[in-house]
């Protein structure tokens, strides 16, 4: 994805959504509701992306998911005059169809396109399907989180609105009553899922809406919800009864448990570069705890690392393209997946493709993100990302740096799995890449 992709998608969205405006002001109000919601979900996604440290392509995919997540709403309203999926059609599915039909993502890579379409399709599903890849799952869950935060804002405004002509379809025409039904109360208090049919009153519905936070996927999203205070309107309009008060206490306890982390944090007072090496810099940093205790932390600031798991099939058997080289830390020769550092300003996936080709001469037709971690956040600052490379073609020539001596060979996948962690398979980051590969290919799961 390029940096111009998001402004372009935004531009398309504006033109497309506003194209549904008619001379019926009642209809237009509903169209505007979804336009405004989409822009706010985009704002929330920016904040979540900051909190999660998403950069480059992954940040742009997140923003694309946010702006497009509800693009099926407009066609839904035009066709059926309702936002009820139950009484019309699934607006997530419809949105994914619209994106394809309108060719909105034509300039993106097939992988990026697929991830955004998947997130739009499942942003409103009751459950995220099991079969998704790690990257599809991550962005689908993130989209659901950003969406939920804004839904809390919208429903909160409804509950605080005291005008008699507010639209009761927002609460599915349920009876306004302080009664919380037995089954709804029991389910809420024991963290169990609700059935929509069990709800009798608006108070039931409020508990149902509060229970959505049990399913928020990212802690950063819970923290953002807490910071924005969007659940307060529901909480403050819960019935003043034993059940209402117990439900509020349970909700607040959940939020406190998951968002109150001030006692764990440290603030940086100053930072000093102690040494500059070619492959990392060493820093010291003065840090202050919430109890005003001071300490010196030392950090190794290294560039981000990428590792590629290149898979190839030959005569019905699966192989990895592995590299052998001398490792200065260990002072031994190791067998590893091709890997390297991300250069300043370089997209990690481009670094992965470049390293693969430089070290093995193989070009990949397809690159799939497998996972990202911080290799040791105790003192290392950088991020490690693993990719699966497929549809390989051999160019037959490496292009190594002056001080690089690298051999490559095809090794059966089974051998690598069996031998990882022993003998020449000594590089710990390769184990992370292999774990991700096994997860992606369904050989291990939760
Ligand atoms: Fe939606």
Automatic annotation (TrEMBL):
CDD domains: HDc, NUDIX_ADPRase_Nudt5_UGPPase_Nudt14. GO terms for biological process: nucleoside phosphate metabolic process; ribose phosphate metabolic process. It comes from the Bacteria. Keywords: Hydrolase. GO terms for molecular function: pyrophosphatase activity. One of its GO terms (cellular component) is cytosol. InterPro entries: HD/PDEase_dom (IPR003607), HD_domain (IPR006674), Nudix_hydrolase (IPR020476), NUDIX_hydrolase-like_dom_sf (IPR015797), NUDIX_hydrolase_CS (IPR020084), NUDIX_hydrolase_dom (IPR000086). SUPFAM superfamilies: HD-domain/PDEase-like (SSF109604), Nudix (SSF55811). Residues 303-438 form the Nudix hydrolase domain. Signal peptide: none annotated. It catalyses: GDP-alpha-D-mannose + H2O = alpha-D-mannose 1-phosphate + GMP + 2 H(+). Residues 34-152 form the HD domain. Its cofactor is Mg(2+). The keyword Transmembrane helix does not apply. Belongs to the Nudix hydrolase family. NudK subfamily. This is GDP-mannose pyrophosphatase. It comes from Candidatus Thalassospirochaeta sargassi.
